[in-house]
Amino acid sequence: MSNGPGETDARVLALLRASLAVWKIDAALATEPDGRWRLSLATGGHVHVSRAPEGIPFRWMVTTPAGRERPASSVTGLLRVLRSTLDPDWRTGRARIVPLMVPATIATP
Amino acid sequence: MIPVTILTGFLGSGKTTLLARLLRTPAFARTAVIINEFGEVGIDHDLVAAAEESFVRLETGCICCMVRGDLEATLADLVARRISGLLPAFERIVIETSGLADPAPVLNAVMAETGRGAGILLDSVVTTVDAVTAARTLAREPQSVRQVAVADRLILTKTDLLPGPDEALLARIRKLNPGAPLLIAINGVINPAQLLGSEGELDDVASSWSGAAQTALGMIPPPLTPPGKGEGDVARLRPTQAGTGRTTRPVPQNMPTMDAPLPHDPDIGCVIVRREQPLPALALTLFLEALADHAGADLLRLKGIIHVAEHPTQPAAIHGVQHIFHEPQWLPGWPSEDHSSRIVLIGRGLSQLWVEQLLDALAAEVIEVGQAELG
Description:
The complex is a heterodimer. Chain A has one domain. A 5-stranded antiparallel beta sheet of chain A has the order 1-2-3-4-5, covered by helices on one side. Chain A is an alpha+beta fold. Chain A is globular, with a radius of gyration of 17 Å. Chain A has 2 helices and 5 strands, in the order αβββββα. By secondary structure, chain B is of the alpha/beta class. Chain B has 2 domains: 251 residues, Rossmann fold, CATH 3.40.50; 107 residues, CobW-like, C-terminal domain (Hypothetical Protein Yjia, Chain: A,domain 2), CATH 3.30.1220.10. In chain B, strands 3-2-4-1-5-6-7-8 form an 8-stranded mixed beta sheet, with helices on both faces. At the A-B interface, α1 and α2 of A face α11, β14 and α12 of B.
């Protein structure tokens, strides 16, 4: 399976649209000329989502209406940061997931 | 007469785990199994792995309100095929209901077939109770109350996840069903004799919760108060099985009659995701994290068989109940030719679109990162 940034971006954008609906947040989502995604909130203000700049250990960046930049290291982190930005009262679940440990591959002779 | 055991219990309470372990014991070796799952894609049958020829799935809906007729027909068909030699001479039938099922109509179906001379006999109703989540479940889910109330035997599961006995939970269970022996299973392990024996035999294996933690086996004896005395909200509703001499079990007085199944919460739905492409292990972990973050308490149950890209020869089984996600387990091998990943989520207000897009976005991201690292 091969995949490039364009494929990921398309899927993440679709996920963000679905997430806004699930979270019941009234906002319009559009792509700006520089490639960033802009969420225009019905209550006023904008939130931007973009790829994190090269050279930092993050993949996504959320810019709050106040201009503060909040990084995320995965799509899961992006959703967490974005939702807490849009809804300050929201709290993440308390469950923490243990990474799946893949058994060592048995070497074939 | 072929004894029929009804195995019930709320979503994620350990029915399938218990059944899978029991079927590996000699006492349950010659058992026909009927499994009813909520949703269009069944997984439990793959997790149980019983003999295929004596294994029946009822996937068309919840057993209590949509397929009772199917259940009766299935029971009759099983017995007929056994008599004609088309099936092995099984000695017992176990019906595992869906976690959302009201057990009363299932009892009715079995007893209806008994009345028709089908050659079966209701042996017992076994209800699994999740020691970690049951207090909340019993408070929120009427079906779970009824599942406890009609039990002949109650199996408390996951006690090993608690530091000690939850006295409030035990009192609640005892109030709902003062007469049923309360057994303890740890990691799905229980002595089959405790499920098959008479209640008199069960009295001999009493031990405390803490004792069970050491022995992986035990029973909490019923309180000294006789059933029906000192329990203001208890009445005997379950009918006596004609001709069997069976006693009735008390269930709360304020419950609907047995012929009227409790309605399911209309907001509870099932999301099913199937993917033919193997999933990267990291994407699976991130997927579960996001579900825990955003679905929260609305996620009643999650289960799945995952084709992990890094380890294609063995599927990983995932389980989650409300806010508790169990460590994924590697199955010894693929139980069928179907090597797709299948995930079933049951909960309130879950969005099929959101779950699918979440999984796809995470898989795309992890694959992209992996390819970037390879250069």
